[in-house]
Amino acid sequence: MMSSSVPPEHAIWRHSGTTTLSAAEAILKGALECLPSVQRVVYVASQATADLDDIQSNPDTSELLRMHRIRLDRMADAGRAAQMASWAARQGQHVIAVLTGPTVPAALSLLESNSRPLPEGAALGLLVEDLALNNSAVDIRGRLARRNIPVLEARDVPHLRDSVENVLRISRSDKGMAAVVVDRSVLRNTESVTLRANRGEEDVDDPMRHRRRRRPRWQETGGPLRMARRLELNSWRALPSPGEAISIGFVTVGPADRALRHMAMILGISGKVPALHLGVLHPMDEAAVARILKRCKNVVVLEPRPGTVEREVLRIAEDLRSNGGKPALVWGESLPPDEDGHSDGFEFREALHPSSLLRKLQHLLREFATDDVIREEFQEEPPALPVPVLMERFGSAGQHEAVRRLATTLIDAIDSDSPDSDDVEAVEGEPMRDQSPIRLFLDGEAMGPVEGRPVYVETFSGPAFFRHGAAAVRQAALSTESWILLVAQPHGPSRVDLERLARAAVPADHADQIHIKRGTLAETSRLRRMLRESLYESGLVVIIIDDGPPTRFDVSSIESEMVQVDRQGFQPMQRIVWPADRACVIRQPPMLAELEVEAVRHAAALETRTSRDPVVWRWPPRLGGRVKLLVEQVEVHRSRPPIRTLTDRDRRLKPPTPIHADSASWSVHIAGLRGKSPGLAARVLLIAGTRMGYHVQARMLPAPIGAGRRAWAQVSFSRPRSDEEAATIGATIPWGEADLLLSLDRVQGLLSVSPDESLRVAAAGRTRGVINIGLFEDQMDREVASQSTSEIANYFRELLHPEGQVIEDYTDLCRWRFHNERLADLAQLGTAFQMGAVPLSADSLESALQEMESAGYARSLEAFTLGRHFAEHSSGLRRPGEDPNAETAERFLRRQKTPSLGKHRMGTRGRSERFARLTQRVYYDIPDLNETEAGREAYCDLAVALRRCVTWGGFDYAERFADAVVALYNADRADTGRALTCKAILPLAEACLARDSIYLASMVVSSEHRRHTRQRLNVHLARGDVVEARYLTRLELTLARWRFRIDLRTSDWLARILAAGRHVLPTSWRATRRDRQVRRLVEEILLRAATGAEEDYDRWLNAMQELHDMALDGRLRIINPERLRDLLRDRHDESA
Known about the structure:
By secondary structure, this protein is an alpha/beta fold. The chain folds into five domains: 11-230, Rossmann fold, CATH 3.40.50; 235-376, Rossmann fold (3-Layer(aba) Sandwich), CATH 3.40.50.920; 395-425 and 435-552, Rossmann fold; 657-880, Pyruvate-ferredoxin oxidoreductase, PFOR, domain III (Pyruvate-ferredoxin Oxidoreductase, domain 3, 3-Layer(aba) Sandwich); 888-993 and 1072-1135, no CATH class. 41% of the residues lie in helices and 18% in strands. The protein is built from 42 helices and 31 strands. The protein has an eight-stranded mixed sheet with strand order 1-8-25-26-24-27-28-29, sandwiched between helices. Strands 3-2-4-5-7-6-12 form a seven-stranded mixed sheet, sandwiched between helices. Strand 13 (296-302), helix 13 and strand 14 (329-331) form a beta-alpha-beta unit. Helix 34 packs parallel to helix 36. The relative contact order is 0.07.
């Protein structure tokens, strides 16, 4: 077993054997193996080339490149990379340029304008990524072919490695640049590759080396088509004999060839389907294409972008037909009709998935397989998802989306003239700005009255403004109309300063027409105020909007924090920032909680600040003040990880029996990745599978989905007898054919089995699964937290093998065991291994885990071992006690009735006994309230409200609240499940518990809130955890015509002083006049409902439902009392 302290040698050092290479590593390995030598590799920094960044930063691999005289250059833009590569090639060098990312179209334009012949002996190979995001994306193959640049296409990772040398040979033969188009799916793949020796300068003239590989000599010329034929880049399979007329044949391009071979392997018809794989798209080998057209009746062109190569094949067919031949009918974008006359066709990228191919081509394959064999492979349609899929976007696209959401609130803000969130309790009667009508054009979409003054608002992402912003600024500065440009400024030290770019774009004689402002997405209220002010300014206003602090969208900044957590194995510091009145919440929708948290996320980072605002003059003059806690920030600092030993019973583990030991192949879908692509769990499987002699493949989608998490990966194992047989199994898992599903992220797990997505990997008869039903910390304040875990768990149970499914909260398990929820992926892998669902040995997995620990992923082996134990003894390893987020009313009351141990204040035991008597009386009077789901929720609300009423106004106040509930309960109907009472408890509680400064401070320092915070942050004081709480407190003084404010950062001393005021201040002096009116009106509505329910139950139930909804979303706290009076009058008129 390899020592964990010695990192393994990188695969590009090796000269023989088999190893696993990513696409980027395969490109560099191909450059090292190429004869003659490659002097320079230029690449664009992107997700697809992240491994090249690691190789360049590694001293050992950098030394290898220096020894082989290869210069590896990193560029930020594809156009610049193409320019540098072409300059190097004109100096006689052999150059590879890897052009990836969204800047590729601009690089193509540059190449089209600057293409010139290369000097003798030079070669330039372009490896161009085809992002192919939609049908309207740039046709890279067509643009290169129209410039008469030779175009190749790679079908998989080993073929991409070979294409490096092939493209250079064709470039040398054509005395110009040549290109390899690589689909984005190939660049995000990893596969086992048979290694060859790295070349040396002395190997160029070695005849034995050329004889071994049977390659043409470097000096051979004759043009690209001759070289393509010498290299045999276009290959045949099952070619019909001359004179035969097979009903169907295929022309494949790129990864579509691998998909066709995979489909044939599934049906058991490998070697029977005629196919021509075009490795060279331009110039097209017309003789090869004509051969299959003459020997088949129908030819279907399978390609990533339907229609591109099909048009060339159609041209060749027409040439044959014009010369008297009878070529096959050519299909692609449309297919031959079936027996019913229905004709289908391939949509964008459909030809790259074996399951899509099978369904589209089933009526054409009957010559090779029977209907029973074909339909046997069809999987049933999965049921619809039980909950909506809620995904969060990151990067420049996510930041731009947030900026645009902010811009769409402009019209509503003008119409309602709503105050900022910092001014919710502004004094009534303040002057309002005279507003003229405004016609807003947001990114070209008109909003507002037609007769209004036009204001044009345009939003930009950071990259879009860098490319197109200068022209937009110049045009808007010269315009006579009002323009507002909202620009999302990317985060990071190497970012482009877009403010300086905007200033530089303004013509000198119009410099006074531009006003540049700056804000952050965290300061939502300030940004909205800035936007409203900008509506009334003339000329051009450019608002540069930064991402944080704290950073929300910059992936590299977020992941850099997670790297430290992975390196230490636990979180040394955790921080939560939320509104101070979160401690007063009884029940709240998670979406509302998310909005409140986002609104205050910036506030705790601010320093102490002061302000002075004018108010309306009145007589007698205003004189007053208030103190209010606005924001709470809680931090927990840890000095060491938790140590939780396993019992002797837990240590005894039975060695698992692999379920798939006799299977020809095995595949796993991992929904949610940790670490860099392809994710830590996938890397462990790839390393262990390679050491056990499997041919391994992986494909992934590395899109960010959360803090340090990415979308998904698929890993496949097989034991082929040759490289040709290995090519029959693709990296894409057909629908319903995953042997294992590891779902780390709940949202990605749902997407992997959703009927509306292209993955659909699970089938109840085959797929085993280990599902994490819990949430990560960054998801707890999101809308996803409101989704029913029981519905989601039941949905997964229907789709997974009944004898191989574990659905548990792994994030909470690892949060408790390790203080690190990110270890959940390896815990899940351990559980799957112990179930026998992973066909690997324990030694290979442990060796791979030790290698990962040496690479900076601490406690990996511990997490894997914990998962194995959890599969055997799950009950003994869970967090002690019940779920803190699903505490029942009985448990809550049991805690409140029991006086706390340790420090006691005078009268603590007596207060506990009195509260016990109060709750016993109340719940004796309402015995059957918790028989329904709504009743159980109301039952919990009542328990919490009773305890908080004691805090707000003492036991007399709590008894008054309880009497109102009991009175309504006695008048309610049992056949409706006491629906009137269920809907009335929450609004009555919100009305009685007015959130004045004293009550707010009392709840903030209460033991109940501290307990909830400790559970949220997983605090263990016995391990040395230190908890620090700080508050942003507003001190406000109104004097005559001025309001003075001080926002002060303090510890909890001011909150404790305010909380002590409830013992000396009479309750009649508490709360505002509006709060007292709302409380009296809600009590009156309940009293009227109790007396009128017998005659008009439904109308009073509707009224209670309306009150309940207002209490749930917070509208009841800010409602105008006249609205409640109108509600009372309407019910009175209806009953009259």
